[in-house]
Specification:
This protein is of the alpha+beta class and 68 residues long. It has a single domain, classed as Ribosomal protein S21 (Hypothetical Cytosolic Protein, Chain: A), CATH 3.30.1230. The chain contains two helices and four strands. The longest helix is centred in the C-terminal third of the chain and has 5 residues. The model has no long low-confidence stretch (mean pLDDT 86).
Length: 68
Amino acid sequence: MQNEEGQNMDLYIPRKCSATNRLITSKDHASVQINIGHLDENGIYTGHFTTFALCGFVRAQVLVFLSI
């Protein structure tokens, strides 16, 4: 929930798994969040990145490398 100024007022905002679209709960201690950096044509990091959130179910099924 946001107030009139646009600030988040919720204490916990749940994430969704990038591979399965499942909700990552606060008790999923096996979940990870990975930031993959963007490179330019010369292979130099541009300062931008894409974030992937993976739930513990995906990691337990050894599907992490297939989902990224």
